[in-house]
Amino acid sequence: MTIEEIQQEIVNEFSMFDDWMDKYGYLIELGNDLEELDASDKNDQNIIKGCQSRVWLAADLVDGKINFRGESDAVIVKGLVALLLRVVTGRTPKELLENELHFIDDLGLKQHLSPTRSNGLLAMVKQIRLYAVAYSRIEGK
After folding, report:
1. CATH code for 3-140?
2. Distance CA 86, CA 16 (A)
3. Where are the domains of the chain?
4. Is the predicted pLDDT of residue 119 greater than 90, yes or no?
């Protein structure tokens, strides 16, 4: 599936819920299903600055694709991490740089999260883009 198709799939999944309490419940469920991050990845280098809770995001370039791993110590944020990873992991740097992550706006996440969580979400997206830029330079050599 393309990044666009996955984003649309997520929007469709969330549209099944009538209110935000149900959507938060679904986010928590997604976070609970997220694979736990290795302790070695929970370091200062991988921590996302700007988040109220602790969030770690690690990435490796394997066969031209970026494999992301992440986790948070807050249940809703862990669900946000799971959503982001679903869209971005296994993609080439070029794919990540050429596609906007519009599902965040489409779902209304920024409007329904606390300002600190919304800022943290934007910080995660920024870090994903920074990984894509860095790995695209490595690939270009």
Report:
1. 3.90.1010.10
2. 19
3. 3-140
4. no
Closest CA to 124 of 99, 104, 108, 94: 104
Confidence of residue 11 (pLDDT cuts 50, 70, 90): very high
Cα 25–87–130 angle (5° rounding)? 115
Using an 8 Å Cβ cutoff, are 110 and 121 in contact? yes
Question: Is residue 61 annotated as a catalytic residue, yes or no?
Answer: no
Q: Please report the pLDDT score of residue 88 as a whole number.
A: 97
Among residues 10, 34, 51, 124, which one is catalytic? 51
Express each pLDDT in 17-27 by its tens digit. Answer: 999 999 999 99
Token match 């600190």: residue? Answer: 116
Among residues 74, 86, 58, 87, the alpha carbon closest in space to that of 113 is found at: 74
Other residues' Cβ atoms within 10 Å of the Cβ of residue 128: 24
Region of 50 on the Ramachandran plot (φ > 0 left; ψ -120 to 50 alpha; else beta): left
